[in-house]
Amino acid sequence: MGVEIKGSRVPEEEFADMKRFVREYLAASVESEDDGGRMRWYPWHSAEYRFNHILNVVSIAERIAEREGADTDAVRVAALFHDVSKLEADQDVHAEEGARVAREYLTSRGEYPDSFVDEVCAAVTAHSYQGPLSDLSLEAQCLIEGDLLDKVGANGTALMLLRMGYEARTHMDAAQMVQRVLERGEDHVSRVESDTAESIAHERLKRVRWFREWLEDEVAEMDWDREDGGRP
Predict the structure, then answer these.
(1) Class of residue 135 by CB neighbours under 10 A (exposed 0-12, middle 13-18, buried 19+)
(2) Which of 95, 141, 174, 189 is the most buried (most CB within 10 A)?
(3) Residue 49: CB partners within 8 Å, gap ≥ 6?
């Protein structure tokens, strides 16, 4: 049983070990599936993509935690483990499974206080919560906000355009797809609670709007919304 240490931190070398574990766990999850993994129906739903997403969330969530006064160590460890089971578990239970993996790791490979382990696992479990973020701990809120914001902005736009290529769609559909990124981003932004997350979100949405405008300027007869036949 760990001893409660006020203000204890996760050393960088231990965090690096956690990152290696998560990366290897994701790779093993894909290799164990005869069909290439549950979420590999698009190329970026691979172990490599999922790990990159996790690192993005770690960075964003840690930034929010630092500015909002959350337990930064708990947030970044929770962010690292939040999707560790994404490629092996069903979507509706991957958060709980991720928390289980995180608990097993933290209790078997370190001397972390029980309260720290509980805080991390609670945040991982809560990261798929669809209700108001104000219902959750500040640490869980930071994690969810980081997870939401990774899907907003230039990164979300690039992924949507990659999806177009995979679906053999032409560049004439690009504006429609970028508009979809913008609308989904606005939906995600409507959920965030912290001032820091809101600031990051608006900056990222601005980049999507710029890209949409650049497409309009450069591509003749760009069809923004094929269902309505008009532009937003």
Answers:
(1) exposed
(2) 141
(3) 43
Structure token pair of residue 25: 């766990």
What is the reported pTM? Answer: 0.84
- Contact between 26 and 46 under an 8 Å Cβ cutoff? The reply is no
Mean pLDDT of all residues belonging to the chain = 84
Which pLDDT does position 7 carry in this prediction?
46
CA 154 to chain centre: 14
Burial status of residue 78 (CB atoms within 10 A of its CB: 0-12, 13-18, 19 or more): buried
Stretches where the chain sits below pLDDT 70 are: 1-8, 32-44, 165-172, 220-232
* Burial grade of 73 (CB within 10 A; 0-12, 13-18, 19 or more): buried
Residue 92, both tokens:
């509706």
The amino acid present at 7, given as its one-letter code, is G
Q: Which residue from 211, 219, 207 is spatially nearest to 173, judged by alpha carbons?
A: 219
**Are 178 and 159 a contacting pair, CB within 8 Å?**
no
The rounded distance, in Å, linking the Cα atoms of 51 and 83 is: 8
pLDDT at 201: 92
The residue with tokens 């164990």 is: 32
Nearest by Cα to 192 from 201, 184, 183:
201
